[in-house]
From TrEMBL:
Origin: domain of life: Eukaryota
Listed transmembrane segments: none
Species whose genome carries this gene: Septoria linicola
Keywords annotated in UniProt: TPR repeat
InterPro entries referenced in this protein's UniProt entry, alphabetically: Csn12-like (IPR045114), TPR_rpt (IPR019734)
Region (Disordered): 1-22
ATP-binding found in the keyword field: no
TPR repeats: 395-428
GO molecular function, one term: double-stranded DNA binding
Protein name: Csn12 family protein
Length: 673
């Protein structure tokens, strides 16, 4: 299209001459229709004219391979004013989307209005169909939305508008509206095999990333990411059988996005797109892991290692977590951001807990929790304080930290993290499920520590059925009923499936029985214990015959046995059961061992006289002997526990210390002896 033809078109439409659109005018016009700084502004004719003059030339160049002249711009401005005249003085945010869509349609109609323009488009389309030039710019009807998208992205980079860039980069299907139209254009103009041409198109369009702005240097990885993003949109398969291919495409896209995240000046623009893509990768990886029939062909009997010995392959969730850990490390090690004046994280630091929580979700879902160790260590050493982050991120992180500490048998530290997560979690009905999960592990930790939930807590919505599953355990721990305790935690118990679902059955079996022993000893002392007499220094001590404890434990052991199991004798083992039963019965040695365990843990203040088979409880001359001789397990554990919880960053990082705290206690001056 030449200037003569353009002038003729302008004359036919009655377009008057006006001042040329200079570069200064173009810079003054807003790039972004959705810019947050313009949301409270009003929609005016001046704004509309400036925006058309700013956006239309680049959109025409990118989409139609044509440079608009002044007559074209005047015509488009007049058309825009006529179309939107009734919308003037409305809030800009209400009509900005309509203006953006209108410009694309107006340009297409403008170029296709005359027969010669249609012939030009037809020729271009014919050339594309026959592949005469793979690098040729797509025709008007094929890539109008693509050109508009790339123009908008280029503007978002120039304005460093993270919010709008995030909004335009949609990852999760189904796609609607402009994205759906752009996908149709991509499939027609850039089918599979034309990825190089598509990347070249992106390189030509994303000038801000290619050349850089403000002396920040080029951002080539972002161009590569956009090319892969468009390829992903074109090829995404919504059918169930295509989930694995979609997962592989997303993993590749995630890696490209994380490469763009590394840029020191522009990388922060990619933080939320990286997080959004990571969430989709997480859900898809977990979903595929739960549907092994979709990934059965990945399993192979061939050895993985070259030495022929083979080895386990990484699962899809593990691969996803390994990929996301790189983004986590990028955010954690970023030196260009930190805490702002308001105490909130800035730049890439904002993504530390967002990405960490996604990684932790994957690892816990696929039961690879050991791989979470480095995440907790790195956060504990380098992260800003957890309290500086949004409450939702704090709750999620502390939940996973608490579960990790629970699985590694650090129950007091686990309850510290879980208690804080529970206190921070919202109490509205939409969060009942999350609060329930936290409370399951928090209650289990507290029972192991000898601490019971209150009656009011058990009445809350998130504690539904807790009395049914935890009530018998608490009753056994109060009364010393070993039979009730073991029957309730047996695999045949009605509560076994529920406890196994949350993976807390074994911990309750192994860690709570010591509290049942303690209660059984208390009851035995109350029945047959007596004060020690004789020397004044022994006044206040109480004695308990260990033989009576042996009988008490034997009765408790018998009550815990299943009568049906006791009556069955395998023919091949006839005659051997009696010996096993004798070995299973509580002996003097086993009871002394249990007493020693309670004394060493501080749950029993006393001593065992092995030669006399007597337990001496060190009570008080006056007062409650039970309270004095059997301290509360919770108070004993709390007194011994370290207040610091590894992985929970509570204080700001010390400058120059690399996140490490150095204890200078006992340090001496140089040269001192």
């Amino acid at each position: 299209m030449n200037s003569g033809q353009t002038s003729a078109r302008a004359a036919n439409h009655g377009v008057a001459e006006s001042a040329p659109c200079t570069s200064s005018n173009r810079e003054a016009a807003p790039w972004l229709l959705g810019d947050s700084s313009k949301r409270e502004a009003r929609f005016t004719g001046q704004w509309l004219a400036e925006w058309v003059r700013s956006v239309a030339p680049e959109l025409a160049q990118l989409s139609f391979n044509y440079e608009l002249e002044e007559q074209d711009l005047v015509y488009l401005c007049d058309e825009a004013a006529a179309h939107f005249g009734s919308e003037f003085d409305k809030p800009l945010s209400k009509v900005s989307r309509q203006v953006q869509q209108w410009l694309t349609t107006a340009l297409i109609q403008y170029f296709l209005e005359y027969d010669w323009a249609g012939e030009e488009v037809a020729a271009d389309s014919e050339a594309l169909v026959h592949g005469s030039d793979s690098a040729m710019a797509p025709s008007i009807a094929m890539t109008a939305m693509l050109g508009q998208c790339l123009t908008a992205i280029n503007g978002y980079i120039q304005a460093e508008n993270e919010e709008q860039l995030t909004n335009i980069l949609t990852f999760e299907p189904p796609f609607t509206g402009d994205h759906s139209n752009m996908i149709a254009e991509l499939r027609q103009a850039y089918p599979k095999g034309s990825e190089d041409a598509l990347e070249k198109k992106c390189t030509q369009s994303l000038v801000a990333a290619r050349d850089g702005t403000g002396g920040n240097g080029s951002w080539t990885p972002f161009i590569t990411f956009i090319a892969h993003y468009l390829t992903y949109l074109r090829d995404v398969d919504l059918e169930r059988n295509g989930y694995l291919e979609t997962y592989n495409s997303l993993i590749t896209l995630q890696e490209k996005a994380q490469s763009a995240l590394v840029h020191p000046a522009y990388g922060h623009l990619m933080l939320l797109p990286v997080v959004n893509c990571a969430k989709l990768v997480c859900r898809l990886a977990i979903g595929l892991d739960k549907q092994p029939e979709l990934i059965a062909h990945l399993k192979s009997d061939e050895p993985v290692d070259g030495d022929g010995e083979g080895g386990p392959r990484d699962t899809l969730p593990e691969r996803a977590a390994d990929t996301l850990r790189k983004a986590f490390t990028t955010c954690l090690n970023d030196r260009t951001s930190g805490l702002g004046k308001d105490g909130r994280p800035t730049g890439k630091k904002k993504g530390i807990y967002k990405i960490a929580n996604i990684c932790l979700k994957i690892l816990f879902q696929c039961r690879k929790t050991r791989n979470a160790t480095m995440i907790f260590m790195n956060i504990g050493n380098q992260s800003p304080p957890l309290s500086a982050y949004p409450r939702s991120e704090q709750v999620t992180y502390l939940y996973y930290l608490g579960r990790f500490l629970f699985q590694t048998n650090h129950f007091y530290r686990a309850q510290e993290a879980l208690q804080h997560a529970y206190n921070l979690s919202p109490t509205d009905s939409s969060c009942v499920r999350q609060r329930r999960h936290i409370l399951v592990y928090l209650t289990t930790c507290n029972l192991i520590l000898g601490r019971f939930p209150s009656a009011s807590l058990l009445q809350r919505h998130e504690a539904l059925h807790f009395q049914q599953h935890f009530g018998p355990i608490m009753q056994a721990m109060r009364t010393g009923d070993l039979g009730l305790f073991r029957r309730h935690l047996d695999l045949g118990s009605p509560s076994a499936d529920w406890l196994l679902h949350f993976r807390i059955l074994l911990q309750l079996q192994n860690r709570c029985e010591v509290h049942v022993w303690r209660a059984l000893i208390v009851r035995t002392w109350q029945i047959s214990g007596h004060k020690q007499s004789g020397r004044p220094e022994n006044e206040g001590n109480t004695l308990l015959d260990i033989n009576k404890l042996v009988r008490a434990f034997n009765l408790a052991e018998k009550s815990s046995q299943n009568p049906q199991d006791a009556s069955y004798v395998d023919p091949d083992l006839d005659g051997a059961d009696l010996e096993i039963e004798e070995e299973a019965a509580a002996s003097t040695i086993s009871v002394e061992s249990r007493l020693s365990s309670l004394i060493s843990q501080g749950f029993l203040l006393g001593t065992v006289l092995h030669t006399q088979l007597i337990l001496v409880i060190l009570g008080m001359k006056a007062g409650n002997v039970v309270t004095a001789g059997f301290p509360s397990p919770w108070k004993v554990i709390k007194h011994k526990a370290n207040a610091e919880v590894p992985g929970w960053r509570k204080l700001p990082q010390i400058a120059g210390g690399g996140g490490q705290v150095i204890n200078m206690k006992g340090a001496r001056a140089a040269g001192s002896e």
